[in-house]
C-alpha cells in the first residue's frame, strides 16, 4: 500500500521531502557510478588521452619554451599519480555525460505533468551533442588563450608551466564551454512546459546578451578577449535559435488554443449549437 502511494505521488509530481532526498541520493549514486566507470576507461586510455589533452600547449610560441621544446613541468613526487587521476576523471566526466545529464533531467521530470515528461528523451538527445560541441570548441580555442598570455612574457624568458596548472585550465575550459551550451536548451524546455514564454524572452533579449558577455568574461579561465568571444558569440547564437523555437512553438500553441487572444476579463465565445444539443440531451434524459 505504501508503494502504491509513493508511485501515485511520483506520477502527479508530489513527493514528501524525504522522498525527494532519497531520489536525489539515488540519482547522485548513479551519476557517480557512471563517472567511476568512465574514469577507469580514462585511466586505461591515459597515453592517447594525455597526448590529446596536451596538444594545445605544444602550439605556444617556441621562443618561450626551454630549448625551443614546449614541455610541461612536473613539480612533485606524487604529481605523476595525480596527473593520471585527473586525466582519468576528465575523460570519465566526458564519457559519462549522457548518464549524469539524464540524471539531472530525471530528477526534475517528476515535478512535471505527465504530458511534459515525454520531453525527457528529446532533452537527452539534444543535451549530449551540445555538451560535446561546447567541449570541442573549448579544445580548439585553448591554444589561443595560451598564446596570448604566454606571448606577453618578455622574449628573453622561459615559461615553465606545471602539469597540474595546465590540467586545471583544460578541465575548466572543457566543462565551462560544455555546460554553457546547455543553457539555451533549458530555455527551450521551459518554453515547452509553459514556464517561459517567447514574449518574456523577447523583452529580456538585451539583458540576456549583456549577461552572456559578462558571464563569458568572468567564467573563462584565461579571461582573454578571444576566449570570451569564443564562448559568448556561439552561446548568443544558440539563444537566438532557442528564441526562434519559442516563437514558433507559442504561435502554434496560440493557433491551437480556441481561447487565445482573449483577456482575463473578456467572455469566451459560446458555441450555441453545442449548448442546444446539450439542453436537448438533458431534456430527453429528464
Automatic annotation (TrEMBL):
PANTHER family to which the protein is assigned, alphabetical: SEC-INDEPENDENT PROTEIN TRANSLOCASE PROTEIN TATC, SEC-INDEPENDENT PROTEIN TRANSLOCASE PROTEIN TATC, CHLOROPLASTIC-RELATED
Transmembrane segments: 28-46, 87-109, 121-142, 172-195, 207-223, 229-248
Topology in the lipid bilayer: Multi-pass membrane protein
Gene designation per UniProt: tatC
Acidic residues bias: start-end ranges: 263-277
Main location: membrane
Region (Disordered): 260-286
Function: Part of the twin-arginine translocation (Tat) system that transports large folded proteins containing a characteristic twin-arginine motif in their signal peptide across membranes. Together with TatB, TatC is part of a receptor directly interacting with Tat signal peptides.
Family, similarity comment: Belongs to the TatC family.
Protein name: Sec-independent protein translocase protein TatC
